[in-house]
From TrEMBL:
Organism: Hoeflea ulvae
Transmembrane segments: 46-67, 79-96, 102-121, 128-151
Membrane topology: Multi-pass membrane protein
Subcellular location: Membrane
InterPro entries named among the record's database cross-references: TspO/MBR-related_sf (IPR038330), TspO_MBR (IPR004307)
Similarity comment: Belongs to the TspO/BZRP family.
Keyword Transmembrane: yes
Gene3D superfamilies, per the entry: TspO/MBR protein
Name the UniProt record assigns to this protein: Tryptophan-rich sensory protein
Length: 154
């Protein structure tokens, strides 16, 4: 790996983790979220920070690989779309108090994640593989989001 690629990798990972952390900081679940009815499979709150940090590192590495290998093609564009959707979910859910709209954002994000995996699969298999745990977690988050919406609809 040359110096330019190493800098790109560090920037992607740092900006992805920092962006996710900032969004989390400004979208801290408060009393509204605490008062919601949650499904029995809702994980404890402490699990989300470590899981998302780990996933953001993997997503950042995949994004750097896509940017380095496929700059100007669809793969990095798909990466940026899924990242924008990822960063939009927390404010929609926790700030706007809209689990219904957040579910729509999450479904669009999952479609973008799957598009990234499908596009990367033949071009950059390691980047595609780095997205598999992310796709699994976002799928689980979608089920959780849907359950919370269903249990609390009025």
């Amino acid at each position: 790996m040359n110096k330019s690629h190493a800098v790109t990798l560090l920037l992607f990972v740092a900006l992805t983790v920092a962006g996710g952390s900032l969004i989390g900081y400004f979208s801290i679940p408060g009393p509204w979220y605490q008062g919601l009815e949650k499904p029995s499979f809702n994980p404890p709150n402490w699990i989300f920070g470590p899981v998302w940090t780990t996933l953001y590192v993997l997503v950042g590495i995949a994004g750097a690989r896509a940017f380095i290998k496929e700059r100007g093609n669809w793969l990095p564009k798909i990466w940026f779309v899924q990242m924008a959707l990822n960063f939009a979910w927390s404010p929609v859910f926790f700030v706007l108090h809209r689990p219904d709209l957040a579910l729509v954002v999450l479904i669009a994000m999952l479609i973008a994640i799957m598009a990234f995996i499908a596009t990367a699969w033949s071009r950059d298999r390691p980047a595609a593989l780095l997205f598999l745990p992310y796709a699994a977690w976002v799928s689980f988050a979608g089920v959780l989001n849907a359950a919370i919406w269903w249990l609390n609809r009025v």
